[in-house]
Specification:
Length: 210
């Protein structure tokens, strides 16, 4: 969802920094936070503040969630072309979201970016599985709900690539996040595209070649 469908930097950085300040931590700069997007929040917090216990990291994570839901979500924007792409894809594909955000955040963040959550058949958050990405659990849960094997997992991060591969799904990387083509290539994705805007044309070509 974030950085694949949504331009999410401002919303997440704002909510993280508000949480750090409220917890009495020196707020980390955006340049430290951005390279770790894709990790579940408490693990990101632990990397920034290694002296915190796991319990403390989860307390900060809860504050981050509070600020995102209360205020920072308003900064969410759709990545260019996403709304048109989703309408095109819906004609031929089952669409779902798996994300390391909490389930309750998903519709709020989509609506904040003027994307209808109803276009997706399944929405899976990190709090619905034992092991979030980069584990395959979110992918497998989505498949079990819609009774379909996923054909592709599209994402911006190395954690997406790992989750897709571990679930036996073709992974497509997009360059709208904070992972370079070189970094994504290390995880051998099936394809790398500039953004989801290129997805319909690419998938049409794929279907034609089969």
């Amino acid at each position: 969802m974030d950085h694949t469908l949504l331009a999410a930097d401002k919303a997440h950085i704002d909510s993280f920094q508000k949480a750090f300040k409220e917890y009495g931590l020196k707020p980390a700069g955006a340049e430290k936070i951005k390279p770790m997007f894709g990790l579940i929040s408490y693990k990101l917090i632990k990397k920034l503040y290694p002296h915190l216990s796991l319990k403390q990291c989860k307390e900060v994570q809860n504050l981050k969630y509070k600020h995102l839901v209360k205020h920072s979500h308003k900064y969410m924007k759709p990545i260019k072309g996403v709304k048109q792409v989703l309408k095109k894809l819906k004609k031929n594909y089952h669409l779902g979201i798996i994300t390391n955000c909490r389930k309750a955040e998903i519709p709020l963040l989509l609506k904040s970016a003027d994307i209808n959550p109803g276009i997706f058949e399944v929405l899976i958050g990190n709090d619905e599985v034992k092991r979030p990405k980069p584990a395959p659990d979110e992918v497998l849960k989505a498949e079990s709900i819609i009774h379909h094997k996923a054909s592709y997992l599209v994402g911006d991060s190395i954690y997406d690539m790992l989750a897709g591969k571990r679930a036996g799904v073709k992974t497509i990387g997009v360059l709208t996040g904070h992972f370079s083509r070189a970094k994504l290539n290390k995880y051998k994705p099936y394809k790398i595209l500039k953004s989801v805007a290129e997805l319909p044309k690419y998938l049409e070509k794929e279907r034609g070649e089969k």
